[in-house]
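Narrative of accomplishments. A recurring question from our advisory board has been how the design workflow behaves on a single, concrete structure rather than in aggregate. To address it, we present the structure tokens for one chain from the evaluation set, followed by the sequence designed for it. No filtering or post-editing was applied between the two.
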């Protein structure tokens, strides 16, 4: 599992990135329009939005993120009712579910999208709509609901990516970790860029979605104490379970038998 020091460095660099991007978009407020203009025009809209192949890719991304959360919930229920079928630690599963609920759920869809009221690219006048373009963090009053800032799908992809990078990639053989990191980041970037290419979001919507999730997930990782675990998985190679980085054994004696049980927390 990822160490506390690595998480703190991750948080520090994410904070620096947040300040840099905020400064950049203050200095270049029309950068979003320029990026969206690469993919769409006022006369023809956003061409990729109508292409079935790219829509299938988007649907796959949504199924991937939602499916992983549903899988975590399913594994949690299986572990509760059938402890011997426990695969991933309860604490890790609760962390995954909580991160997804707080990030894309509460922060993005519950707060930012509701109160930013930023119109989507396909709705602004520059691309054939009737709404006014607004900068990121501006309370624009140009959207009645399910607004542009920030991207829900990009935040979902970012949450899953950061969870995987912090929690599961370190458990892979060292020679496979680089390729796994590249694949995870590439999927998250592709899904986020598609939202811009479709005209559903501005570049800043997906950038700040990723930044916010990179700030939230490592903080939750530390709050759940996952940096103290040796592995996200429940060990089944003996009567005892190696539970922490310090190498202490976690056991529970069965009543009247003297044997040990797994404690998959």
């Amino acid at each position: 599992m990822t160490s506390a020091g690595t998480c703190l460095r991750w948080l520090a660099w994410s904070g620096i990135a947040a300040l840099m991007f905020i400064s950049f978009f203050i200095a270049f407020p029309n950068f979003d329009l320029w990026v969206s203009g690469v993919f769409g025009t006022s006369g023809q809209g956003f061409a990729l939005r109508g292409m079935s192949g790219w829509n299938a890719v988007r649907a796959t991304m949504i199924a991937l993120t939602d499916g992983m959360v549903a899988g975590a919930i399913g594994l949690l229920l299986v572990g509760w009712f059938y402890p011997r079928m426990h695969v991933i630690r309860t604490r890790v599963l609760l962390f995954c579910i909580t991160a997804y609920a707080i990030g894309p759920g509460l922060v993005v869809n519950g707060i930012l999208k509701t109160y930013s009221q930023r119109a989507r690219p396909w709705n602004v006048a520059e691309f054939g709509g009737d709404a006014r373009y607004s900068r990121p963090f501006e309370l624009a009053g140009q959207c009645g609901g399910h607004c542009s800032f920030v991207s829900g799908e990009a935040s979902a992809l970012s949450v899953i990516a950061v969870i995987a990078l912090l929690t599961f990639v370190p458990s892979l053989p060292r020679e496979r970790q680089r390729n796994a990191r590249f694949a995870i980041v590439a999927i998250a970037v592709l899904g986020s860029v598609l939202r811009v290419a479709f005209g559903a979001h501005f570049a800043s919507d997906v950038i700040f979605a990723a930044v916010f999730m990179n700030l939230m997930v490592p903080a939750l990782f530390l709050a759940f104490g996952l940096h103290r675990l040796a592995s996200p998985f429940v060990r089944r190679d003996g009567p005892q379970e190696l539970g922490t980085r310090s190498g202490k054994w976690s056991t529970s004696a069965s009543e009247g038998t003297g044997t040990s049980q797994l404690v998959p927390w």
